[in-house]
Amino acid sequence: FELLIYLEKNKNFLEDFIAKNIPKLKVVKAEATYLLWIDISSLGLNSKEFTKKLEDLGKVRVISGVTFGENGDNFIRVNIATPFDVLKEALLSIKKTIESF
Predict the structure, then answer these.
(1) How many CB atoms lie within 10 A of CB 39?
(2) pLDDT-derived band of residue 30, with 50, 70 and 90 as boundaries?
């Protein structure tokens, strides 16, 4: 039960942070999962290009949506089953990476 509360807190933080700080990204509402889909279509990059930039520039690793099929190419997946401080640092790094291009 505590894990579910923790994951919900991380999910709410991620959704709020992206809405307020990275409006180019859109979080797909999720139910009962710790892997969230994030729409990156407004960035003008496919998921492989964007995940490479995140790794190279932001030192953040996320899952390329195309891994799950062609329909996922405008998405990344983010694992929220991580310590809150790590999630916060990763989101700040994603924000800085997007601002750099």
Answers:
(1) 15
(2) confident
